[in-house]
Structure formats: C-alpha cells, structure tokens
Amino acid sequence: MELASLTTQFMSGLSVVAILIIAAVGLAVIFGVAGVINMAHGEFIMVGAYTAAVVGQLGGNTFIAIPVAFVVVGLLGLIVERGVIQWIYNRPLETLLATWGVGIALQVIIKLIFGSELYYVGAPKLLDGGVRIIGRLPFPYYRIFLILLAIALMALTFFVIYRTAFGLKVRAVRRNRAMAGALGIDTARVDMMIFVFGSGLAGIAGATLAPIKSVSTTMGFPYAVDSYMVLVLGGVGSLWGVVAGSGLIGEAETILAYIYNSVIGKLLVFVFIVIIIRVVPRGIFGYYERR
Amino acid sequence: MTSKKTLRRRSILKAGAATAVGLALASNKAPYFFVRNIAKAQESGTIKVGILHSLSGTIAIIERSLHNAELLAIEEINAKGGVLGKKIEPVIEDPQSLVQVFAEKAKKLLLEDKVVAVLGCYTSASRQSVLPVFEQYNGVLLYPTLYEAQECSKNCFYTGAVPNQQLDDFVPWIIKTLGRKNFYLIGSNYIYPKETNREVKALLQKHGGNVVDEQYAPLGHTEFSTNINKLASSNADIVFSDLVGDSIVAFYKQFRQFGLSANDIPICTPITTEQEIAAMGPENAAGHYTSFNYFQSVDTPENKSFVERYKAKYGANEVTNAVMEAAYFQTYFLKQALEKVKSTEADALIFEGLPGQEFQAPQGKVKIDEKNHHTWLWARIGKANDKGQFDIVWKSNDWIRPDPWVDLLYPNKDCDFTNPKVLERLKSGGSNRSGTIDL
Amino acid sequence: MAAITLGRVRTLRKTPTIPLWAWILGALVVAAIGTYPQYGSNYYIMSLLGKFLCYAIFALSIDLIWGFTGILSLGQAVYFGISAYIVALSLKINYALTHPTRYGGKIPDFMEWNGLTELPHFMTPLLSTPLAILLALTIPTFFAFLFGIITFKRHIYGVYCAVITLAESLILQEFIIEYQAYTGGFNGITDYSNYTNAPFLWVILAVAVFFFIAARVLTHSRIGTVLKSIRDNDVRAEFMGYNVANYRIFVFCVSAFMAAAAGAMYAAWVGLISFLDGGPVFSIEAVIWTAVGGRGTVIGPFVGTFLVKGAEFFLSGVLAEFWQLVMGGLFIFVVLAMRDGIVGTIANWWRKRDRGSLRQITEDSDLRAHDRQHDWEPEGAPTRSTEI
User: Fold this and answer.
1) Could you count the other beta carbons within 10 Å of the beta carbon of residue C10?
2) Using the beta-carbon criterion (under 8 Å), do C187 and B128 form an inter-chain contact?
3) Spatial separation of the C-alpha atoms in residues B360 and C65, rounded to whole Å
4) Range of the domain at C65
C-alpha cells in the first residue's frame, strides 16, 4: 500500500464523511430538537434528488438545484409536519411508524409521477475533472465541492442554532419545553420550523448527492440507514456528534473497504457501531449534551 | 364529554373514510378491482401469458424494458388476429427486484392465473428462484437474458446469450484487437458474475491474458471510490465489469469523475446496455465496450421497423437493447409454438412446439436449438459513442450455436433433450428435470 | 397514586374473559382453515394460508414485546430469519444428498458455485433435521437472551433500542448476503423439499392456536400485568419493586422463541428463504400488521396480518402500485386515528358501553401534544416518557 494510494483513499474517505454529514445533518436537527424519528428521511433526500433532475431537465445545474431543492423539500416537510407529525410529537415510536408510512407513500407518488427508470442528474460542468494531489488519480473537483459543502452546511446549522433568535428559541424548547412555553415561546411553531429546516437540508443532500450516484425511487433507504447510524453513534441532539459519527463511520468504512472489500467494510462498521452503542448508549457526544 | 382528542380522532376518521372512498371512485382502476374477479370466471376466450419482470427496485432500470417489449409483441400479435383464434392476455406481475417475490408471483401465475407460459426474469438469482416452481408445477418459462449457462431445465427456454456466444469472442478480441492483457474483474456479488468470471479466467488462460484483481460489490452498491483507487494503482489496462443494475451507473460515473478515460483503461462488459447509458449520461459511457448480440444501431430492416414501433408506443426518447430484443422475439416464438402444436399444454410446447422455432429478429435470424433449448444468436461488439448508442466494431460472420456446457470447461457434459435416455428420465416424472447428460 | 395503580391492576385482572361468541367464532375460523385442503381446490390459496399463519405468529411475538411490554424492536426478524435459515439449510443439505447439482456434487448448489467442495464441518449437525429444528428454536432464543442482558440491564430502551435492533437486523442481512457460500447469499436458499401439504398446515395451525392460548394466558396472568405496567410506566414499576430488566429479558426471550418457531415452520412450508426474511423491512411490516390489527390484544396480530396480507393478495398485479400507496396511508392512518388497531378500537368501544374507557383513564386527553415535555430518554425524567 503505497503512500499515494493511501492518501487518495483517505481523501475518498473524507468525501464519504462529507456525504454522510450532508445526509445526516437534516435528520440530526429534527431528531435532536423535536425528537421526531423521521423514517421518511431517505425519501426526503430522494425527492431532493428528483427535484435536481427536474431542474437539470429545465436547463439548470446543481448550484441552482440546491436552493430549489431546499424550498421544495422544505415545503414537503411542512405538509408532512402539519398533516402527520404534529399529532404525535410526544410519541417517538409512533412517529417512527407514521413516517415509515409517509416514506412508502412518497416512493409510490414519485414513481407514479416519474416512472421507475433511473434518472440522469449530471454534475455541473464547472466541477468536471479533478486536481492531481498525489499519485496517479486526480481527485474529482465534485468531491472537493462536497467536502466544502458539508463544512458549509454544518457552519450554517451551527449559526442558525447558536447565533440566531430562532436558534435560541430552539435551544430553549429543547432544554425545557414547559418553561419555554411558559415564557411565551410558541413551541408548536418552533417544532414546525425546525422540521421544515431539517427537511430542507435533506433536500439539499438529495440534490448534491444525485450526480455521483444514481437517482431512483429506492435510493433513499441506504442514506436513511447511514444517517441513523451516524446519529446513534455520534450522539443524538448533538451537532458535533454528527461530525464525530460521520467521521468515524466514513473513514472506517473506506479504510476497511480498502483493506478487505466494500462489503466487509460495511459489515465491520455496523458491528463496530453496535459495540460502541453498548458501551456508550447515548452516543459519543450524547453525554456531553446538556439536558 | 368528548375531549378534543376524540373530536380530532373523529375528524381524522371521517376525513380518512372520505378520502378512501374518493380515491376509489376517482381512480378508474376501482371498478376494475370489482370486475376482475367476475371477469376471471369469464376468461376462457383468451390465452393467458404471464409477464414476470421487475417494475420497481434496483433491477427495474433494465427489466422494465423487457416488460415493455413483450407487451409490444403481444399487441402486434393480437392486432393480427391473436393465436389459435384467441387474443393473448398478458397477466402482469411486479416482483420488485426481490428474489423471493419472484418465486411467489411465479406460483401465483401458474396456479392461480393458470397461464400458458411465463415470459420473465432478468437476474440469474430470480431465474434460479422460480425454476423450482416451474419444475414442480410443469410450467413453461421463456428467459430472455444472457446468463452464465451450465444449466438446462426442462421447463425453461433460454433466448439470451450464453457465454460461448458472447465471451468466447469478446475476450480474445480484447486481447488481440485492443491489445489489453491485464484484466481487472469487477462484478456484482451473486451467481452470474461469479460464474462468468470463472469462464473469463479460463479464456484468459487460453489466450494469454492475466487477472490483476477480482472484486465483488453487493447488488445495488453505489460507492466505488475504493475500487477505482485500487484499480488505478494496479497495472490493469482493462476493466471487465459484470456489475448489474444501479451499480453500473454509479461505477461508470465515478470512473470518469476520478479522471480515468476509456482510452487508458476501457471498461468492457457483457451487460451494460443503451438503457443504463441513458441513465448515466452518454459522456460517462463513451469509449467503453459492450458485447451483445444486438444493439439499437444494428442495420437490418427488421430492426429499423422494430425501433420505430417501440418508440411509437413508448416515447421517442426510449432506447432498445439486446435483452428486450430477446424478450420481443421470444414472444413470437411462443406464438409460433402455440400455433404449431395447436394446444396450450406444457409438454406439447416443450417437446414439440418451441424447439426448432425460427424467427427473423431485429438482430438477424434466430432459432431455438432442438437439442438444448437455447437460442442461435449473432455476436457483436459495440463501442459506446457520445450519443448514447453503440458503434458496432465487430460482428460474427454467422449465427452461433449455443452451448450451455461450454466445451472449454465441460468437455464431458452436454444438454440434449433429443437424447432418448434424457427423454425417458423426464417422462418418468422424477425430480431431476434437467436435460443435462454426461457424455 | 398507589390506589389508582392498584385499582388499575384490579380492573385489568377483571378484564372480561373471552365471551362465548368469540369462542365459537374462533373455533369456526380454525376449522375453516384446517379443512380448507378438503373443500378448497386452490392450491395457491392453501399455500398462502400456511404462510399467513406463520406471519401471524411472528406478529404475535412482536405484539408481546411491543403491545404488552412497550419494547419496540425493529429487528425481530433476526430471530425469525436465523431459525428459518437453520431449518432451510438442514432441509437443503438433505435434499442435495439425493439430488445432485448441475456439477454433480452432493452439496447444496450455492455452496458449489461458491467453490466449496464439501459440507463445512460446522454444518454437520444440520444433517439431522430434528436436531436442526431444536437448534433453530434454541439459538435465536439464546441470542435474544444475550441481547436482553446487554440491552435491558443497561437500561437501553425506547428509541435507542429500536435503532440498535434495526442495526442488528441490517447486520444479519449483510452477513447473509456476503457469506453466500454458507447462506446462498442474494439468491437465498431455494429448491429443497418443502412441506406444502394438508398435514403440515394442521401442524402450523395447531402451533398457532397453542401460541395464541399461551399468549393469552401469559398476558392475563400476574406476569402479564407486570409487563403492562412496565409498558405504561417503567419507572413506576421499578419503584414498585419489580425488576424491570428481568421481566423485559423474559418476555423478549419468549417472543424470540415464538418468532423462531414461526420461522422454522415458514422455511419448511414455503421452500424459499432469502435475506429478506431476516431484514428490517420485514420486521417493520410485521409491526404494522400488529398495529393495524390491534397491539395490546392477542387476537389483534392475527386479524391485522390476515387483513393486510389478504388485501395485498387481492390487489396485486395491476393495482400493485396503488396498493403500496394504500399501505403507506394505512400506516399513517392507524398511527394517527386508530392507535389501538381494529380489534383494540372495537374493544374500547365495547367497553365504553359498560363503563368509562380504560384509555380515557390513562390518557391526558385534554392536554395538547405539544404542551407536554417530551423526552425519549426515560431515565431521570419523571414524565410520561415511555408513552408509546
């Protein structure tokens, strides 16, 4: 294993970490704040990807697709929240089931609209090609873009939660809902807004992840699974947990895949997660999260 | 006192009931549901044929086209008067790319719908899961997909290419004409790629190539940066891919994104069709090679007309590919067989109706071999161009006889349904329903 | 507080016994299924009946831990799947001995095309099918026991438990697919002798009735009462002196045993096992059948399974996509409007005619959902956090 290929592998690992962060941050926000287990997260990502496909067909590129997907999936989140979630906020296990149903329904609806062939979503021409860092292979610009985007999204989320008035309300509700309500914060509205925000983030994830993989109605489930693993490992309710969880899982998977093969890599990572959860049930950053 | 909760629940219940009724009425399929069971009783005036292809899931990308092609053929046949004076009625099932559901639906088609024959399956996994069902209940399956051979079931007719009609010419061509010797094998993790790679390795040994690495990815896997990295740091000069389904799109895309070009390391595959190219975008496929017996760009009058008719029915942006071309002509084989034996009985079709059938397919003339129930096909090699089509760079001079027990690996085995010993064994009703015989 | 709790316990124990009409109806249904082979000519429907019964037992096992004890496991199919694979492997190995494969070997075909030349040593016990059945029943129960100790003793439950079980289900699935030399991988195990015939249908039916009665006895006994109290508020139960973790482990093992039994019969009946039978999608589907039928009741899972799967059968084919939409909508509907499922809703309505509905006693029906502190970490927070 020469240095060059190991370095490339590490960089690929970074891009995998970035992909995980982008996919999981929306879920982290919703789960961490509102306590809602959104099993339809994968399908939200899928809708974001299809939005990007439509934008592509209308002549736009990924950069345009990002805000469009944010809005579209955010709206979708609004509908789901008002229609389904708002009745069952205090029952996390039931939101799980209800959102599973939402996920299935979304898959079918998208299938009815778009058919079940794979869709072609291209990366923007600007990001074609790559930069040769080390070794034989150039590292694709698009993956660098993804890494930057992951950082940007995390920064954005941190900013919103810790630096805005809205974020203050969010944190108050998270800490002590009754008290926040007594102080005049409209907790229902906060829950709704955070759900919309999280959904929008999922939409961005879909729009940006579509060009490197394939777009189909069933593409969402693996992303949802990965996102949950990230959250459970990193600690629910903690944004740093998202980074930690993604970092560990992404790099571990990539490096193990290099040493063995991709299937064993994934398998070992799962086992690794289960072991860690046994030892640290709340996730890595879970214990540091102020209650 | 009715609490708010009860009120809310009541209103949800009312809304739900209203929606359900509304949906049912609005959907023009609702009357179909009620009528279906009555209609079943009336249907003796049609010939039922099962269509068992995934319309959803990871394999739907390609299997949908098989379904479409078969329906097109049925439509054409019905327009010309049907078979034996009756119309063909397709009974469509969607196994959702799930092996288990394939077997379940196959059972339903044979036992519940009592179809005459089933046109179905793409992956070897799905075929292997339904064959026991067909063998147990003596049904007829027409299987249009290229596969790894080494099989010949009494109840199956194979209209797709077997390795000696694809690989036997492809691999030497890569070595001699492309001048590439160092093969990097990558495939999806199930029987077809594994068996195919076995044959490839045997061919490499025979023609002087070598295997640099052999990697498998789970079906549906889409993250290939590790594989591409390993590929680049090896001395491979050609990738032989048996990836199937969604993985194809992801792999080609990431291959190009990492800066590898088809000139440096071409991807050669017996699987990637115009369909997957449409999904990945032509620029990701340009310059790579596929070997098939048919491409949309084949220049025969039958093909021109076929492509036109297909586009007319399904849309001008649709593409055709080799597997759905087989699905198309196998439907005609079934029709001809039914007309020949004038019966819908399975054994009649299997022993008299289907063997020996010929048809002028879009790829050229094709025929079902009487001995082994596989199909004589033409071999071609195509190079993908930037329009999403293939330029045909090599073509066999004549059609090739199928050999499911290819002599290279199995000189002592053959598949022969005309052999009296085999016939005796089959007619005695034992559980071995294969036509394989040791020489 | 204690008085209300005790009062609830007393009320629960006086839950109406099964009325006579239910006995008669139940007997009729059992008889109808049992004699189907005689009067029914449709072989396919008979095969479905056996399958649905196995599914129903599996759903019942989920109901035991979820509806009665409040543990949501999204990976219950692990126990079903392991048992099914053991039985299927055993049947397949025995089948292969008398039916040579395409290469002439006497081992299962998937082993051959993966390069194995003889039966792996650790699989030799499977040559004996009775032993295999025993293993199929005990190994999953043992795993459940291990899982229980590691999880419940550390007070991991609620959402975390759900996600961990989901992860384990996925691991099993990946494991099955990867080690295809031993498990048949993506293809699954197919083509072995299966017992789709009338006598075996009666066996399945008998087992189903047995588990039904056993579950009913269990849930209406003292143990069942404790389980329900754990479901309603485990902190309170702990303070009452019950060792909550032990009860959870116990019911989890019982549930795993049931799932394993269902899986073993399923493998023998259907003749095709794949990784799907051990995966999370199957687990969640079973949870839905239970929810639709009525969690917290013993008959609910049976009703739910037959209703949902039966409808799927009728609506398959052309209406398949429409059916998926209905399924999705059904989940949402059941969770929002019919929390107790069909049977539960009927039972509530029935009980409401006699006295106040039990649900109304236990629900804070007048508080808006938002105004309650919600917390999925039950430890330390004295709220109604285990409300499911």
Assistant:
1) 10
2) yes
3) 62
4) 46-279
- The 3-class secondary structure across chain A, one letter per residue, is CCHHHHHHHHHHHHHHHHHHHHHHHHHHHHHHHHCCCCCCHHHHHHHHHHHHHHHHHCCCCHHHHHHHHHHHHHHHHHHHHHHCHHHCCCCHHHHHHHHHHHHHHHHHHHHHHHCCCCECCCCCHHHCCEECCCCCCCEEHHHHHHHHHHHHHHHHHHHHHHHCHHHHHHHHHHHCHHHHHHCCCCHHHHHHHHHHHHHHHHHHHHHHHCCCCCECCCCHHHHHHHHHHHHHHHCCCCHHHHHHHHHHHHHHHHHHHHHCCHHHHHHHHHHHHHHHHHHCCCCCCHHHCCC
Single-letter residue type at B405: W
- For residue C101, give both structure tokens: 């494969």
Give the Cα separation of A239 and B280 in Å (integer).
Answer: 35
Closest residue of chain A to C326, computed from CA coordinates: A105
Q: Least CB-CB distance to B99: which of C178, C187, C314? A: C187
Q: What is the pLDDT of residue C366?
A: 34
Which of A240-244, B172-176, B360-364, C359-363 is predicted with the least confidence, judged by mean pLDDT?
C359-363
The angle formed by the CA atoms of residues A69, A72 and A75, to the nearest 5 degrees, is 140
- Fold that domain B164-292 belongs to in CATH: Rossmann fold (3.40.50)
Strands A130-131 and A139-140: antiparallel
Asked if B92 has any chain C CB less than 8 Å from its own CB, the reply is: yes
Q: Strands, DSSP E only, in chain C? A: 189-190, 272-273
- 3-state DSSP assignment of residue B114: coil
In a domain, C330, yes or no: no
Interatomic CA distance for residues A157 and B153, integer angstroms: 60
Query: How many contacts (CB atoms, under 8 Å) link A and B?
Result: 113
> Looking at the domain assignment, is residue C109 inside a domain?
yes
C335 close contact with A: CB closer than 8 A = yes
For chain C, what percentages of helix, strand and coil (3-state, to nearest 5) are there? 70, 0, 25
CB A285, CB A235: distance < 8 Å: yes
Extract long-range pairs of B254-257: CB within 8 Å, 24+ residues apart. B254/A212, B254/B224, B254/B225, B254/B228, B255/B224, B255/B228, B255/B284, B256/B283, B256/B284, B257/A123, B257/A130, B257/A140, B257/A142, B257/A143, B257/A212
> What is the ipTM, given to two decimal places?
0.80
Segment A190-230, tens digit of pLDDT: 889 989 999 999 999 999 888 877 787 778 888 888 888 88
Domain tally, chain C: 1
**Nearest-Cα residue of chain B relative to residue A107:** B56
Q: Is the dihedral of CA C201, C205, C210, C214 positive or negative?
A: positive
Average pLDDT, chain B: 85
Contacting residues of C for A109, CB less than 8 Å apart: 325
Residue-wise pLDDT for B307-363, tens only, equals: 999 999 988 888 899 999 999 999 999 999 999 999 888 888 899 999 999 999 999
Question: Which segment of A62-66, A127-131, B373-377 scores lowest on mean pLDDT?
Answer: A127-131
DSSP-assigned letter for residue B242? E
Amino acid (1-letter code) at residue A241? G
In a domain, C132, yes or no: yes
The amino acid that residue B326 corresponds to is A
- Alpha-carbon distance of C331 to A98, in angstroms, equals 6
Instruction: Classify B259 in phi/psi space as left (phi over 0), alpha (psi -120 to 50) or beta.
Output: left
Of A252, A248, A287, give the one whose Cα is nearest residue A268. A252
Beta bridge partner(s), residue B292: B380
Task: Output the pTM of the full model.
Answer: 0.82
Name which of C272, C337, C360 is nearest B9 (Cβ-Cβ).
Answer: C337
